[in-house]
Amino acid sequence: MKYEFNTDKEFDIIAIGRACIDLNATEYNRPMEETMTFTKYVGGSPANIAIGSSKLGLRAGFIGKIADDQHGRFIEQYMRGVGIDTSSMVIDTEGHKTGLAFTEIKSPEECSILMYREDVADLYLAPSEVNENYIKRSKVLLVSGTALAKSPSREAVLKAINLAKRNGVKVIFELDYRPYTWKSTEETAVYYSLVAEQSDVVIGTRDEFDVMENAKDGMNADTINYLFKHSPDLVVIKHGVEGSYAYAKSGETFRGQAYKTQVLKTFGAGDSYASAFLYALISGKDIETALKYGSASASIVVSKHSSSEAMPTVKEIEELIASAETISV
Amino acid sequence: MKYEFNTDKEFDIIAIGRACIDLNATEYNRPMEETMTFTKYVGGSPANIAIGSSKLGLRAGFIGKIADDQHGRFIEQYMRGVGIDTSSMVIDTEGHKTGLAFTEIKSPEECSILMYREDVADLYLAPSEVNENYIKRSKVLLVSGTALAKSPSREAVLKAINLAKRNGVKVIFELDYRPYTWKSTEETAVYYSLVAEQSDVVIGTRDEFDVMENAKDGMNADTINYLFKHSPDLVVIKHGVEGSYAYAKSGETFRGQAYKTQVLKTFGAGDSYASAFLYALISGKDIETALKYGSASASIVVSKHSSSEAMPTVKEIEELIASAETISV
Amino acid sequence: MKYEFNTDKEFDIIAIGRACIDLNATEYNRPMEETMTFTKYVGGSPANIAIGSSKLGLRAGFIGKIADDQHGRFIEQYMRGVGIDTSSMVIDTEGHKTGLAFTEIKSPEECSILMYREDVADLYLAPSEVNENYIKRSKVLLVSGTALAKSPSREAVLKAINLAKRNGVKVIFELDYRPYTWKSTEETAVYYSLVAEQSDVVIGTRDEFDVMENAKDGMNADTINYLFKHSPDLVVIKHGVEGSYAYAKSGETFRGQAYKTQVLKTFGAGDSYASAFLYALISGKDIETALKYGSASASIVVSKHSSSEAMPTVKEIEELIASAETISV
Amino acid sequence: MKYEFNTDKEFDIIAIGRACIDLNATEYNRPMEETMTFTKYVGGSPANIAIGSSKLGLRAGFIGKIADDQHGRFIEQYMRGVGIDTSSMVIDTEGHKTGLAFTEIKSPEECSILMYREDVADLYLAPSEVNENYIKRSKVLLVSGTALAKSPSREAVLKAINLAKRNGVKVIFELDYRPYTWKSTEETAVYYSLVAEQSDVVIGTRDEFDVMENAKDGMNADTINYLFKHSPDLVVIKHGVEGSYAYAKSGETFRGQAYKTQVLKTFGAGDSYASAFLYALISGKDIETALKYGSASASIVVSKHSSSEAMPTVKEIEELIASAETISV
């Protein structure tokens, strides 16, 4: 089964939300206190998805606000360098800083992130900075859940969704839940359900859908029963090493399996999954193949040091699908 | 034409939002600098609508947060005294104060309000304080636009709307636009359109609908064309002394005319209009009659000193409809 | 013993700090919930002291920030009307409101105040709005402790004190402690001791001196022992109905007794005390007489409805001293 | 001429203020956009001074608040490792982060810093966390001006100064002016003059003294004329490559000259100067020698990559004094 997109659009995908800096421990397999150097990469879920998509060959654009400093300029230059249209990236004029993520890799199983997200530039994107003429040029608007965490970014994204729907642009909602940015899970649930109800495709882990429902141990059947009463017609629910499920409103269900790999760290799995899954879907591959692309891409990225720089090519993904073993649970 | 409500509900109407204090100039027809005493009344649009509805005979409830002080207690006692169920009014525990409105009446044409709305208790109503079991007991959830102006009241109201829709409760959205509470008109437009699209009935002045559309000099035809693509099936647009229009999704249009009266001040016209219009609608009168009730009630309140205390009885409204002249424009 | 002032100054006293609105229950001897009308007066400790002093005949000025609205204009007009120089009162341009105090008089023994002090204009007086050329024209700079509670008013007052000391202007510090404006008593103690150490005269209740010392049940002997190591040479400590003590650095101690009166409410006692005490001191009366003036003025004000409007004349004070009984404890 | 300290104290110096993280460009002589790795050091003026002093042999302690995360733990471990008593370093419990300084070294003449100082842990040190029993154990309390920039750190430092003065501990004020933390130069001037007037020794650049005086192009003669009316009896004013001047209240003036060196970057000059100057002063060397120690230490640090790790030993300083040429201007 294939998923249909409007074909007369200039961009395949426009992502909206944060573009930040990852500072990854150069010396790893130790506590961060003992790490003395850090390597700089572009980071942030929607930026990573745009980078991953662009490296796979999609025509990608980005809407976001970046700091007026060396980190902000590095982000714009890097994203432009991998082929992303950065003409709708806005430079902050009020002194806000770039979000930072220091990553600690004690072992493949013990990874953590030390976040700097206080008053960061990306959360200051304003509704007036979101442009209807830009959004309507794309097949897809990719919305990252974290961009809903604070005003005015929240209103900028709600406006972008409204404009996408008025202009025949598919809204794809990557739940991307990061607790540190939100005031309460009640607040998250309010905006996650509001946006999910208006989206065409919703992607997240089982835990993230639980956050959307303000519930614990939710069942996929209840989730799709709820969402299919509203706009969504495709819902992807990820269950870690147990693989992922894609549910179509038409009634079909597809399962994707995870691939065995040498894990270095767990960061970046979700973003690489989303970029390859969307690449396949938008390129006209069927949903079952798209699930394989997502899993394969995630396997590759978790075996490497960065999240953005490590985004694979189509060739790497296809080779892994051809050769790697899947994980049976 | 009549508008249908779910009949097996205990409450006719539950209003959500602010309940405040009006301090009306006891000595009027002068600048406030020369007013030396002020008379205290309950105020705030949704509180006034609940009071007006209850005095007309509807079974009304209220969801809102009040200060833990003498003003907060006065509000709860007064509202309970006129027959409103106050069991879902929550007492603030963080020291927030009651909103205040000092009214200045220089002349019937020159009225102004000096507002105290900084960090007021009503805007701190939290989503966790909104209860599904309460909302589902009502035919109508009345939402006031001002309650959307700030978090967490904004999320509390968005949650209440979600719960109303899940439980067959009609959502009636009174735009009630107060510029001083909002950061920007862009922000207002985002939430007003989001909520209007999800409501069953939308009521406001032409100017307020322009705010919702982030536009100037909007046309009623465009407004209803937009809203009828979504949930609303009844839209009431008020044009001051030129009267008001009710548009039904079925295609019918109804016009109500304003009544001549001896104006003392302009405050309270909208709230008294809404309470009498809703009373008539919920009581099973046809839309045309409901428009007359709204206009008549507004005429009575603008001729009196307060907004809440002055809310008329059915008898007063019907006598005015029977005897007063309408304004021809 | 007399206290010496610089005689070649144009103003007797310039007060710095808040000028607010009191809304006194018109119907009293009941809970405020049952009070339906409120009477408006100018209030706020330094404003009251300026008003009291001016009515007694001192040449008074005022430095403070007032709201750009009807309440702000009323305050300026009233203060100008009683003879105060208001040329250094600054109009707020950022939408801050006038502080409000609703007074509840349940009985002479049960008085309370419902304060509106959130983001009030007076606390936004900035250091750049404090003018050396103005301050140096006065014999006395009267500083109210509450003006130290928040930035930028805090820095404006610290700057004013610095300028006073450079220009031979006596700094009189009225502790005027209001807990609701401060973050912690630790913070209050830091600024109260900092300012007290730099002042010439310090006036407060025993409880207020305890706050300055961040201690409980402090002894007057310890307080003066501490303060006389720094700038102060006169310290007045009030003990309610037990009367007040004035301690001079030279070693002399004076005691003032309270007068019997028909108490209506307790508000305004401190401000009326300070204005009459300072009037007497600046007029060249000896300290013992000044203590009598303070007590007599307080006795008169607590028997009346307002704090500012009720400030007595010299004749009233002298008649009371001549005729009233003192309280023996 | 020697400067006298109380000899019966356990610590030579206790510094109060910020301890942060420097992230220095590993690849330098280029814009930061092109730097891909950063090396981590402890930073922040008072931390650097404590580290420098401790490495020179002084018994040093530190009062400050650190984040409850990997960066905070690294700071405490590093400082303890160089011999500093960290028993009064408080761990933040409210989620505040460690301040960061990314350094860019385009060339020895073009250095800049990208700061993360929003809501950082060090500025949340509270007055209740400053302990009289700790402070009184030291000869010197070293106060860094930046710690005065925000509440509650501001009040913590004001309290520490008050306690130092009550207990015979010399207060040394390093002006350490960083504009990004302050609201206005007016505000800085208020606190800088307040603290300078209460200090025993004041150290800063000519530009920093101009900030204290809220003036431009100030003269050293006016500065010392003003400060010697208050507590200070030693004032050190630095003029970059032109050297520095030490003014004693007794009337003597001393000049120190800068040493020629191979400059890598300009960061850390002030902190290394202060630590070696104070080491010499506290060790009983005369003021002239102390100026040489300061200049020599600064020369060494600006030729190396870090500010803290590069702090020299006494041997290195003495060798440089013996061999290096001074700069003649």
TrEMBL record, chains A, B, C, D:
It comes from the Bacteria. InterPro entries: Carboh/pur_kinase_PfkB_CS (IPR002173), DKG_kinase_firmi (IPR022841), Myo_inos_IolC (IPR030830), Myo_inos_IolC-like_sf (IPR023314), PfkB_Carbo_kinase (IPR050306), PfkB_dom (IPR011611), Ribokinase-like (IPR029056). It catalyses: 5-dehydro-2-deoxy-D-gluconate + ATP = 6-phospho-5-dehydro-2-deoxy-D-gluconate + ADP + H(+). The gene is iolC. This is 5-dehydro-2-deoxygluconokinase. Pfam families: PfkB. One of its GO terms (biological process) is inositol catabolic process. It comes from Mesobacillus foraminis. Keywords: ATP-binding, Kinase, Nucleotide-binding, Transferase. PANTHER family: 5-DEHYDRO-2-DEOXYGLUCONOKINASE, HEXOKINASE FAMILY MEMBER. It is an enzyme of class 2 (transferase). Catalyzes the phosphorylation of 5-dehydro-2-deoxy-D-gluconate (2-deoxy-5-keto-D-gluconate or DKG) to 6-phospho-5-dehydro-2-deoxy-D-gluconate (DKGP). Pathway: Polyol metabolism; myo-inositol degradation into acetyl-CoA; acetyl-CoA from myo-inositol: step 5/7. Its EC number is 2.7.1.92. One of its GO terms (molecular function) is 5-dehydro-2-deoxygluconokinase activity. Residues 12-313 form the Carbohydrate kinase PfkB domain. Belongs to the carbohydrate kinase PfkB family.
